[in-house]
Design goal:
about 280 residues; 6 helices; elongated; 8-stranded antiparallel β-sheet
């Protein structure tokens, strides 16, 4: 057995994704104990799946908690200006003052001056307190608004991740269906490292594609799948951004599946100079 061809057949990905049947799993278990390169291929694919999951993980900003605590820490503490005024007012003890023997008009004039001065002091103290509280309110409101925006962003990102996870789960369930035909498409000469797998539903005739190992398409280009029927290529759909297995078109019959690199949006006929992988459908 050629171990390199065995590794590139798609059995490693099928095994790791839990889609291998009992016979395939038993064969792989026996071979990996004899051939370390098979175990290395398994470890490599598992690591790539883990890196993909971690790359999509989103954590809250590190300073989110400190921002919230800073915004709210002084909300229920009396302002210093107000506290000073209150303590001074409540703790001040009445003093007995000997009034000089002056005319009544003169006493009234001095009394009015004292009252006016005290009123101004009270007014200034009240204004300063109001300005302080209003500025604290504006600062806290600004911080809370920023925190709410961060929360909404995290909620949106988490929903996106949940949708991607659900897509992958649905794909794995689909591939375990007994009606599915698996076609491993290997790289042509010069592109031996490329690999993709077609999952063709014999019942619905729908086609699903797993791009195991294809180079990133250049700007303005897109991979296109072809189903060859009696030597004639039939468009089976272009590869879009998707999670795990990508659903393409359907075809009633196919002898061979192949992938070429075409202009974005696809072509009506394949550019055979840009052929990457192909695989024959088992009868």
């Amino acid at each position: 057995m050629n171990i390199e061809e065995y590794i590139l057949s798609g059995i490693i990905e099928t095994y790791v994704l839990g889609m291998a049947d009992a016979e395939e799993a038993a064969e792989l278990a026996q071979l990996k104990s004899k051939h370390p390169e098979i175990q290395a291929a398994i470890d490599s694919f598992e690591a790539s799946l883990e890196m993909t999951a971690m790359a999509n993980a989103i954590a809250p900003a590190a300073d989110t908690k400190s921002k919230l605590m800073l915004a709210l820490q002084d909300e229920f503490v009396a302002p210093k200006a107000y506290a000073l005024y209150t303590d001074t007012t409540e703790k001040q003890e009445a003093k007995v003052v000997q009034l000089p023997l002056t005319p009544i008009a003169s006493k009234a004039t001095h009394l009015y001056k004292y009252i006016a001065a005290a009123s101004i002091v009270l007014l200034l103290g009240s204004s300063a307190t109001n300005v302080y509280l209003f500025n604290r309110y504006k600062a806290a409101n600004k911080e809370i608004t920023a925190l709410l925006n961060d929360k909404n962003t995290l909620t949106t990102d988490n929903k996106t991740i949940e949708a991607k996870y659900q897509d992958i789960t649905n794909s794995l369930q689909l591939m375990s269906d007994t009606n599915i035909i698996k076609v491993a498409m290997k790289g042509i000469a010069g592109k031996e490292g490329d690999l993709a797998t077609v999952f063709w539903d014999r019942k619905t005739k729908d086609i699903y594609l797993l791009p195991n190992n294809l180079p990133k398409a250049p700007e303005g280009k897109q991979y296109q799948l072809w189903a060859l029927v009696d030597g004639k290529p039939i468009d089976a759909g272009v590869l879009e951004d998707c999670n795990g297995v990508c659903k393409l078109k359907n075809t009633i019959k196919a002898d061979i599946f192949a992938i070429t690199l075409e202009k974005k949006g696809g072509s009506i006929s394949p550019d055979l100079t840009q052929l990457y992988v192909m695989g024959k459908v088992s009868s």
